């Protein structure tokens, strides 16, 4: 049976959530192969392209060891499509209570986006305790997140937006950071040019960096 708690624990262990907009369903398999070859067993496929649902299904069928989520889920229609496709978690840039409640009714994990204390409280009121801190760098980065974690000790965050190798370590200094999201290791131009070798290399570097941060 599907267990949200176990999935979140898996996500915490992986620590990095690659955020990917795929131009075609065909690119899903080479993407999954390159992420896994680089040691990064997670993919958040955004609903910014028409390929999202098909790509999620393809990844779920092919790779049992890849944790596959849906990103940029803005409506209950997209949430339903994502879950029907096999998404193991949903991510949204903001906190839409209708979408959050729908996901929970379906027994699914959703990480809604928050940028302010009021939004955190809205998400808490809808029983979400793992939240996307978005857009992390643009709204104040580590300084803002540190200040916001103080009153909300039970909340875990997935900072996303403007995160790259140079600032990754600073986010993991905050104990409530469960994972960090980003697109730096899955650049759209690499996918467009079929440079999956670059994705594998970049994923491997990201995993090595995270290991070194966690073992400090
Ligand atoms: C996004 O929604 O685009 C993600 O948060 C990724 O942000 P990034 O491209 O700045 O890593």
Could you please describe the fold and organization of this structure?
The protein has 216 residues and is an alpha/beta fold. The chain has a single domain, classed as TIM Barrel (Alpha-Beta Barrel), CATH 3.20.20. The protein has 11 helices and 9 strands. Strands 5-4-3-2-1-9 form a 6-stranded parallel beta sheet, sandwiched between helices. Strands 6-7-8 form a 3-stranded parallel beta sheet. Helix 3 links the parallel strand 2 and strand 3. Helix 2 packs parallel to helix 11, helix 3 runs parallel beside helix 4 and helix 9 runs parallel beside helix 11. It is globular, with a radius of gyration of 16 Å. The termini are far apart. The mean pLDDT is 97. The structure holds 3-phosphoglyceric acid. The site of 3-phosphoglyceric acid (3PG) has 10 residues, from strand 9. 3-phosphoglyceric acid binds next to strand 9.
Largest sheet: 6 strands, parallel
Task: Please write the string of helix (H) and strand (E) elements.
Answer: HEHEHEHEHEEHEHHEHEHH
The end-to-end distance, rounded to whole angstroms, is 36 Å
Number of domains: 1
Mean pLDDT: 97
| Ligands (ions, cofactors included) | 3-phosphoglyceric acid
As a whole number of angstroms, the C-alpha radius of gyration is: 16 Å
Structure annotation, total helices? 11
In the CATH hierarchy, what is the architecture at level 2? Alpha-Beta Barrel
CATH class division: Alpha Beta
Strand content: 15-25%
Q: Report low-confidence residues grouped into runs of 5 or more.
A: none
Shape: globular
**Annotated CATH homologous superfamily:** Aldolase class I
Helix content estimate: 40-55%
* CATH fold topology: TIM Barrel
Quickly give the structural class.
alpha/beta
Count of distinct strands = 9
- What is the topology, as strand order, of the major beta sheet? 5-4-3-2-1-9
